[in-house]
Amino acid sequence: MGEIVLAAKITHVPSIWLSIQPGKHFGIRRPAELALTEVGRRARELGADTFLIADTHWMNSIGFHLNGKPRHQATYVSHELPHFIHDLAYDYAGDPELAELIREEIVAGGQKARVHTYQDLGLEYATLVPMYFMNQDAGVRVLPIGCNIYSTVEENRRIGEALLRAVLRSDRKVAFLASGSLSHAFPPNEIAESLLDDVSSELNRNVDHAVLEMWGEGRISEFLDMLPDYNERCTGEGAMADTAMLFGLLGWRAYNGRGEQLCPYFGSSGTGQVVVDFPVPAFHTT
Ligand SMILES: [Fe+2]
User: Fold this and answer.
1) Any idea of its EC number (predicted)?
2) DSSP category for residue 235
3) From ligand 1's centre to the CA of 128, what distance in Å?
4) Which of these, 65, 120, 185, 226, has the minimum number of CB atoms within 10 Å of its CB?
C-alpha cells in the first residue's frame, strides 16, 4: 500500500534560478533556495520515491493531464521569460505506473484525464526549478500533473482526492508538491522590473499574510471557504488548482494540520511566494 509521505506548497519563481547564477541577482532568493532544499531533504528522509507535482506552468485548457514519460530528459528554456531561465539541462526518471493509476482514479471519479508519453512533452519550470534543489542526484521519480486554467476549486478538490486514492493503490512513497504562487498579480510591464522583490498590491500582500496565518493555525476549513474568492480576486496562478489539489489530497475540510512555513513570505515580480510544509494525516499512511 502506498503512502503520501510529504505534502507542501512551494514556490518555483524564476528569480530563484537567477539567484544561483553569477551576476547582480546572485543570492537574492537564498531563503527560498534553502527552503526548497529542506523540502527535498525531508522527502528523502521520509523515503519518497516519487515527486508528484501539481505544476501551475503546465497550463491545460481542457481536461486533466499527466506527463507519464518513463524518462524526462531535455534542455529547457522558458518561452515566457527566456532571459531568466535557459540552458537548464535535466534528466529524471518518470513514473508511468503511478500516472496510469492516477488517470484511472480521476476517471473513476467522473472526470477526464489522460497520460502522455510524447517525446517532445517536456517539463515546465514549476517542476524544474524545485527539482533542481530537491532532487539533485535525480534519485526520486518525477511525475507532473498539469493545472487546468479553466477548472474550478471543486473540480481540483476531486482531483486531489483521486491523487490520494491512486497513491494508496500504488506501492509508492509520494511527496506531493503544490507548485504555485499565493497571490499572482503581475505588475504592468512598464514597472515590472522595479517590483522584482515586491508584491504588486498591498491588498494582495495582506490577504496572503492572512492566508499564511490560517494555514499556520490549522484554520483550513475557513481558508477553503474563501479559496474561490481568493483565486479570483488575487489572480490565482493556474486557477490555484495546485492548492485545491493539495487540500483535496489532505482531506479538505476534515484536515486541520498546521502548516510549517519554511521561508519568509516574499514578493517576486509582483507575486506572493512562500514554502509551507503540511503534516500528512495518519490515515494517509500505512
Ligand atoms: Fe509561476
Assistant:
1) 1.13.11.15
2) T
3) 11
4) 120
Domains and CATH numbers, the chain: 3-181+237-267+277-285 (3.40.830.10)
Ligand 1 mean position to 57 CA, how many Å?
A: 6
What is the Å distance from ligand 1's center to 241 Cα?
12
Task: Give 9 Cα–ligand 1 centroid separation in angstroms.
Answer: 12
* Amino acid letter, residue 169: R
Mean pLDDT of 223-249: 98
pLDDT at residue 76, rounded to an integer: 98
For the chain, report the end-to-end CA distance as a whole number of angstroms.
7
Cβ atoms of 274 and 263 within 8 Å: the answer is: yes
Q: By three-state DSSP, how is residue 189 classified?
A: helix
Give residue 282's pLDDT.
Answer: 82
pLDDT digits (tens, 9 = 90+) for 162-194: 999 999 999 999 999 999 999 999 999 999 999
74, pLDDT greater than 80: yes
Cβ atoms 109, 162 nearer than 8 A:
yes
Residue 75 C-alpha to ligand 1 middle, in angstroms? 19
DSSP secondary-structure letter at 8?
E
Ligand 1 geometric centre to CA of 169 (Å): 31
- Give 145's strand partners: 54, 66
Question: pTM for this structure?
Answer: 0.97
Cell of 107: 476517471
